[in-house]
Every structure is written in C-alpha cells, then in structure tokens.
Amino acid sequence: MAVFIFLLAGILTLTHRQQEIAVQTAAANTNWGLGFGESGKQPTGNASVDFLKQYSAYYVGAADKKVIYLTFDAGYENGYTPAILDALKKHNVKATFFVVGNYLNTSPDLVKRMIAEGHIVGNHTNTHPDMSKISDMTSFTKEITAVENKFKEITGQDMQKYYRPPQGKYSVNNLRQANELGYKTIFWSLAYVDWYQDKQPTKEQAFQKLIPRIHPGAIVLLHSTSKTNSEILDELLTKWESAGYTFGTLNDLGK
C-alpha cells in the first residue's frame, strides 16, 4: 500500500510538473505561429487546441468538417472594404471584421453595413499595441472597452465578444484577461503576407498560398486593406466552394 501511494504521488508530481512546463512554454510564445505539413491538413500552432480552449481561445475549428471561418483584420480603411463586402454578399458568406479604434472613428458607415449584412464585428484593441507587454488588467481592459464603447455609440448594439491580439502577439496572462472579460481570443490557421500597401501580392501569389493550404476548420485571416484581396475574393470563395467547403461564423466554434 505504501509503495502504491509513493508511486501515485510520483505520478501526480510528474503530471503537475508537465503542466507547469506547458504553461511556461506557452507563456514564452508571445508571437502566434503555425507549422504546415501535408497539403489540405490542419497546421499545428505554437499552442495546442486543448491548451487554448481552457482560456476560450481558438485558432482552428473541427478537423472533420469542411467549414471555413473567414476573418478580416481592419486597422484602417483603404478603400477596398466595399468590394470585399460585395463579394461576401454575393456568396452569402458571413465573416468577422476585427476593428481597431481608428477604424470605428473613420469608417462608421462601413461598420454599420457590416452589421446590417450579418457580419460579426470583433475587437482588435483601441490603439493596436503589443498586448503581450501589457500585464495589468486595468490597461488591458482600457484597450478593449474603448472599442466596445465606440462600437455601441455607432451601432446602438453591444459588441460580440471576440478578440484578436494585434500582430498575433500574446501572453498566457492576456488569454486569462480576455477570458475574464468574457471574450474568446481568436488566432488563425491560414494567412498570407497581404498587409503591405506598396507590396501587394499578385493574384497568382495569393492563390498559391490560399488554395492548397485551405483545410477543414480553417480560421482564415485576411486584411481588408489589401487591394489584392478585394480583387480576388469572389473567385477565391468560388474556388473554395468548388472544393466542397462551406462557411461558418465564429459563433459556431466549439459547438
């Protein structure tokens, strides 16, 4: 009996230590990153699905469902969002637009259109800082609630509680903070370099990244500031649909 208790204590100690190591490892990963393997398969993140889920955080949906969750980061308006919204409307696809405070201040009519056409408007922070460097709850909350308040002022509605860390920079403490505020933190499982205004990818370069790497449960990150995205979105959605994919919303995650 004594031997059994000793062994059990050893196992529990080892398990606790493994959990501590997992937390420490995740805490060091303040830049969201992905590793791609076989084409058409889900990539691995630098934090696991199970680890993220304990903080109501996600980077991918179910691996057995050919569903895409389309998201756009909107730091400012570059004149391309109307065309993006037109393509989404044509395909009856509902996306999520993660907006910063500047976007709400400069483009309230587009925000109203997003809501009117059934899209989710999510929280991308007020000033787009490196949130991994913000450790105190007061400062974190200030970045989040400023966006909530402006959104309600514009739309008369409460913002749905989806949060995307600017540039994918995060800490485990940030995940806890967002969760305490009732937010789901949303990373991504597919993106490409589309955000440089003066160095936009060609249509061919975009498709080379976005077609073969699509996968079941993909949370796709695109930028609404991209001229290329505005020009290819209609065809891109058609290609994904032809491959048997449908489109869900972030409200479906975890169900």
CA radius of gyration: 20 Å
Give the class-level CATH name of the largest domain.
Alpha Beta
Terminal Cα separation, in Å?
Answer: 44 Å
Low-confidence stretches: 1-28
Count all strands and give the number. Answer: 10
**Separate helix tally:** 9
Task: Determine the fraction of residues in helical runs and give it as a percent range.
Answer: 40-55%
Give a structural overview.
- α8 crosses α9.
- The chain has 255 residues and is α/β, with parallel strands linked by helices.
- The chain contains nine helices and ten strands.
- Residues 1-28 have low confidence and may be disordered.
- It has helices spanning 2-28, 49-53, 81-91, 101-106, 108-116, 137-155, 172-180, 203-210, 227-242, and strands at residues 34-35, 44-45, 57-58, 67-74, 96-99, 120-123, 162-163, 184-186, 218-223, 246-248.
- Strands 4, 5, 6, 9 and 10 form a five-stranded parallel β-sheet that branches.
- β7 (162-163), α7 and β8 (184-186) form a beta-alpha-beta unit.
Task: Write the SSE topology.
Layout: H1 2-28, E1 34-35, E2 44-45, H2 49-53, E3 57-58, E4 67-74, H3 81-91, E5 96-99, H4 101-106, H5 108-116, E6 120-123, H6 137-155, E7 162-163, H7 172-180, E8 184-186, H8 203-210, E9 218-223, H9 227-242, E10 246-248
Parallel strand pairs: 3-8, 4-5, 4-9, 4-10, 5-6, 7-8
Antiparallel strand pairs: 1-2
Quick tags:
255 residues; globular; five-stranded parallel beta sheet; alpha/beta; three-stranded parallel beta sheet; TIM Barrel; disordered N terminus; 9 helices; single chain; 2 domains
